[in-house]
Design goal:
single chain, alpha+beta, Alpha-Beta Plaits, 2 domains, 3-stranded mixed β-sheet, two-stranded antiparallel sheet, 6 helices
């Protein structure tokens, strides 16, 4: 149903905004449509045509906003509380996870990906470790900390935590990539 609504909003956006722009061009006597502009003819006809064009364009903007709202709702992690809906954005969850990885576990270079799971979130952490860090210990620590703290603080159940060590290198060796420094995707 959600996909149908999004498709409908997109079609209505194209139709109304397109007709709106078309009516404005005809109303101002655009040289592209001289025959249609002659139908409008009078000053009142031009004003009415332009007004209709503006209204149709504004209706197109309404459908654009509806599409943006649908996308935002689809990306939120939602939980029903006693008094209503509680939503947490993926950005907020990634920020929280980044703080745990940096401050509590001591990881400096990483990326976090979130996946919607039924009634929760799946977390994938890709990181670079230094040679003195033990992969299994760090990985299990990340899994334990994220499973506990993310659910506790955000109310979003963590269904899975996957850890991928993409590189093991000394801190001074090599340049840090933009992806590593960003900490998120």
């Amino acid at each position: 149903m959600r996909n149908f609504r999004a498709l409908g909003n997109f079609i209505f956006l194209l139709v109304t905004a397109g007709l709106g722009v078309f009516m404005i061009i005809v109303g101002v006597g655009g040289g592209v449509f001289p025959d249609l502009a002659s139908l409008v003819g009078t000053g009142a006809g031009m004003a009415i045509t332009i007004l209709i064009g503006v209204l149709l364009t504004l209706a197109g903007v309404h459908f654009l906003i509806a599409i943006a709202d649908e996308r935002l709702d689809a990306s939120l992690f939602v939980r029903e509380g006693e008094r209503g809906r509680i939503g947490v954005s993926p950005h907020a969850i990634r920020e929280f996870i980044s703080g745990i990885l940096r401050d509590e576990i001591g990881i400096e270079r990483f990326r976090v990906r979130l996946d919607h799971h039924r009634d929760g979130v799946g977390i994938t952490v890709r990181m670079t470790l230094s040679p003195d860090q033990r992969v299994t210990e760090v990985g299990e620590s990340i899994q334990r900390e994220l499973m506990q703290h993310v659910a506790e603080r955000t109310g979003v159940e963590v269904r899975e935590v996957s850890v991928l060590v993409k590189s093991i290198r000394s801190r001074g060796r090599g340049r840090e990539t933009a992806d590593d420094a960003a900490g998120g995707s």
